[in-house]
Each structure stands twice: as C-alpha cells, then as structure tokens.
Amino acid sequence: MANVVVVGVDASPSARKAAEVALDLAGSLGASLHVVTAFEMENAETFGVGSDKVRISNADSSEIVAKSLGASRPGVDITHFAARGKPADSLIKEAIRLDARVIVVGNRRMRGIGRLLGSVANSVAHNAPCDVYIANTYED
C-alpha cells in the first residue's frame, strides 16, 4: 500500500476544510496528498478585459486547492487531478490507481434530507478500497 492520502474537493468552503484535515493527516503519516476534483460537466467562466482574461473552470478546483495547501505545508508532497465523472466514483478510482492508504471526504449532506438522498461520504465509505476518514466540515 502506497503512502498516499486522497481528498476530494470542489469550490465549497466545506471541501476546503476537508482538504486541510487531509493535509494534517498526510503530514502526520509522512504521506503525500493527492487532491481530486470530480465533475460531470465542465462549467467555466471567463473574467477580465481584453487580453487580460483568465478562464476559471470547476475542473480547476483541485489545482487551486493543491497550490494553496502547498504554501501552508511545504513538507508534504501535494499532487492534483481533475476527473470527469461522479465524485465518489472518481475518488475511489484514484485511490485504486494510487493504492492509497486513506480517502478523506467531508461530511456535507450527511444530515437531514441529504442523508436520505445520499452523499459522497456515504458512497465512498461503502465502496472504498482503503480506510476512509470523514472530516467534520460543519460550522455548528
């Protein structure tokens, strides 16, 4: 088993909290961190004027989070990957590909009606090829 921690992110604050937990866990384990964004359909917006334009896509979330985490914890090797597909399936595929030690997910949509409809954390926990750490990302 490789010494890799996989974390799933999107552009939400709760995903950022899960990524920070994953970074701490990777640091404690002496592992590398692999930040994954999954998207079923790419959404992009262009900002700026003239030749000073920048295009931001939901597929860029993993890169943005990975770079910002890298600045806060220089001792951990951080990689990123964007995958087309459902979030839980993409995390599991990356964990299998990397022979990951643990997958970190946030607990968003694990309360109330979201619990009945399903969540990424629930799907990953039931199908992961490795340990799963569900980070508390609620504010309350």
Automatic annotation (TrEMBL):
It comes from the Bacteria. SUPFAM superfamilies: Adenine nucleotide alpha hydrolases-like. Signal peptide: none annotated. It holds the Pfam family Usp. Residues 2-134 form the UspA domain. Coiled coil: none annotated. Belongs to the universal stress protein A family. This is Nucleotide-binding universal stress UspA family protein. It comes from Pseudarthrobacter niigatensis.
